Model the fold of this input.
Amino acid sequence: MTQPKEEIRVVAFDVFGTVVDWHGSVRREVERLGLGVDGADFARAWRSGYQPAMREVMERGEWIVLDVLHRRILDRVLADFGLDAMAEAERRQLNRVWHRLEPWPDSVEGLARLGTKYIVCSLSNGNIGLLAEMAKHAGLPWDCILSAENFKRYKPHPDTYLGVARTFDVEPGRVMLAAAHHSDLEAARKCGLLTAYIERPFEYGEDQPKPVAPWERNTLHATSIVDLAGQLGC
Done:
C-alpha cells in the first residue's frame, strides 16, 4: 500500500527483534560461555519470560528498567536449566548481553538511508543506558534514543507512542512506527501513528521461523529496513 511520504517526519523503531537479532546474539553468548545447555533454547526461554514478567510489573504499577527485569527472568531461567551455581559476577555479565546484541545485516544501512530524509529514533521498552550501549556496539545511527524510560510507561501504553510525537512537536500522523510485531503496530495505529511491518522470519532462530504474511492493509510491508528505506524514497 501507499502511505503519504510527505507527511512523515519521524520513523521510530521497535528494537528487539526488529533492528537487532536478540536470539542469535544470546545463543552465541551462551555457547561461548560453555554452559553445557542448548543456546537456542536458553535464548528463547529467557525471552519468553519477558511478557509475563512485564505484565506482572504493570499490574503492580511498578516501574523498573529493563535491565532489572531481564535479571529477574535470567535468575529463573538459570534455575530451570540447572545452572543455579552460576556466580553473581557471571550473572551480571551474562545479563548485559542485551547491551551487546548484533544488528540484522540490513539494519545499519537501512537506518542510515532513512536518516537522510527523516528523523530516525528508537522506541523500545529497553532502558536508555541499554539502548545507548547497544547502539555504540552495533553502530546503529539513531538521531535520537527514545525509550519507555523517557515516558515512564511501557509499550503498549499510549503515552509511549504519543510521546514520540510530543518529543518532536508533530502530530501523531507524522510519526511512523516500524516493527516486526503486529501487537506493537496495532497499538501504535490506535494512537494515530502510521505503521510499517518489517519481516523478521528468524527472530526466534532459523529452527523456529515465524510467519511474516502481510498484516494490515494500512501498514507498509517491508522485507527489511533497507526495503523500507526504498519504499520511503531513501
User: Anything to note?
Assistant: The two ends are 17 Å apart (CA to CA). The domain at 5-21+102-231 is CATH 3.40.50.1000 (Rossmann fold). The chain has two domains: 5-21+102-231, 23-99. The first strand starts at residue 10 and ends at 13.
